[in-house]
Specification:
Distance between the termini: 145 Å
Number of helices: 9
CATH class of the largest domain: Alpha Beta
Structural class: alpha/beta
Helix content: 25-40%
CATH topology of the largest domain: D-Maltodextrin-Binding Protein, domain 2
Number of strands: 13
Number of domains: 3
Radius of gyration: 39 Å
Order of helices and strands: HHHEEHEHEHEEEEHEHEEEEH
Oligomer: single chain
CATH superfamily of the largest domain: Periplasmic binding protein-like II
Length: about 350
């Protein structure tokens, strides 16, 4: 006879089944060094990033579409295309909410950074195109600091503060060589003269003066003739520094039938003036040296001296960078304004 087991049946509360589709939830592992440009050969456009950022910030396709002035269906299509390119879902979509996936959170930060970099690069390119940004290497001769050059450099620095300006003091001949070799971008010469490889333009001209010790018999004269220096020993700079700059004052003596007897050479006008003041000889110099002449030096003008000393701006003839041409424009206007000041009426 079979026995029936006694079974205690417990009463359970009724179980309610949710027949709606399960809400999807996907979690992805994303590399920490993920980069937006680390893609295959399929193109990703900047507009994809802008669309994605708008949806990620709004977390609502309708609001994002309004913000972008787009219809919602095309926006949804572009987001799906972006996800196909990436190979990862960027959003968790339900009928009630839109949320970023783990991949979407990382991609949001990278997308923002990419657009920010693009905007900065565009701004930088425009600045370079306008000459507002860049690196500029400029050579100058020391005596140019006794002309309007310092004021011009100050004006350029105020107008173009983002340009990295590197200044180098040297001789005219050295500046020409450095420009030709591409070591310098622009230079200020003294009597550099024409050059086949360079654009050279005159910015400033000045007369020559005699440089005498205050004990010299001619020291009391305001104007003398170069002929009166025929028998004097001369202190001069080397022709290596610049042949035309050397030959111009020499020519003032040759006009009177003699070539000066140079007993001492020096590299800078400040040194030449100090040696003249010490009694080692006389010299002929650009008029700007009067600004640094000590009391033991006098600088009378030279009668009928029609030769002038010129400060020139030089840069390569093939130069096409905006930063160089902007610098040249400032130099032209600054020197012109300084040397052509209107006289005041009394």
């Amino acid at each position: 006879m079979s026995a029936k087991a006694n079974v205690n049946v417990m009463a359970f509360p009724p179980f309610h089944f949710n027949l709606s589709p399960p809400q999807p939830y996907v979690q992805y592992l994303v590399r920490s060094n993920y980069d937006v440009l680390d893609m295959d050969d399929r193109d990703i456009e900047l507009r994809h990033l802008r669309y994605f950022i708008a949806v990620a910030e709004e977390l609502h396709f309708g609001r994002a579409a309004n913000r972008l002035h787009l219809a919602q269906p095309p926006l949804s299509q572009q987001i799906r295309k972006l996800e196909e390119i990436l190979g990862y879902p960027l959003f968790l979509r339900t009928s009630r909410a839109v949320k970023l996936t783990a991949a979407g959170e990382v991609f949001l930060e990278r997308a923002r950074r990419t657009l920010r970099n693009v905007h900065e690069d565009l701004a930088e390119a425009r600045s370079i195109g306008h000459g507002d940004l860049g690196f500029l290497r400029v050579g100058f001769i020391g005596s140019a600091m006794l002309t309007p050059l310092p004021a011009m450099l100050g004006q350029y620095r105020r107008l173009y503060p983002k340009v990295q300006l590197q200044l180098s003091e040297t001789y005219t001949s050295s500046i020409i060589q450095s420009l030709t070799k591409g070591i310098l971008d622009a230079g200020f010469l003294r009597d550099g003269g024409p050059s086949e490889a360079l654009h050279v333009e005159r910015l400033f001209s000045e007369t020559f003066v005699a440089v005498l010790p205050h004990t010299h018999p001619l020291a009391s004269r305001k104007i003398i003739s170069a002929a009166q220096l025929r028998d004097e020993p001369f202190v001069f700079f080397s022709p290596i520094a610049g042949s035309l700059a050397y030959n111009k004052p020499i020519s003032l003596c040759e006009e009177h039938g003699f070539r000066p007897h140079v007993v001492q050479e020096a590299p800078q006008w400040l040194t030449i003036l100090a040696l003249v003041g010490a009694g080692l000889g006389v010299s002929i110099a650009p008029a700007c040296v009067r600004r640094i002449a000590e009391p033991n030096i006098v600088c009378p003008s030279l009668r009928n001296a029609h030769v002038t000393s010129d400060i020139e701006l030089a840069y390569r003839s093939t130069e096409d960078r905006a930063v160089v041409h902007a610098f040249a424009n400032i130099a032209r206007t600054s020197f012109h304004r300084t040397t052509h000041k209107p006289s005041r009426r009394k």
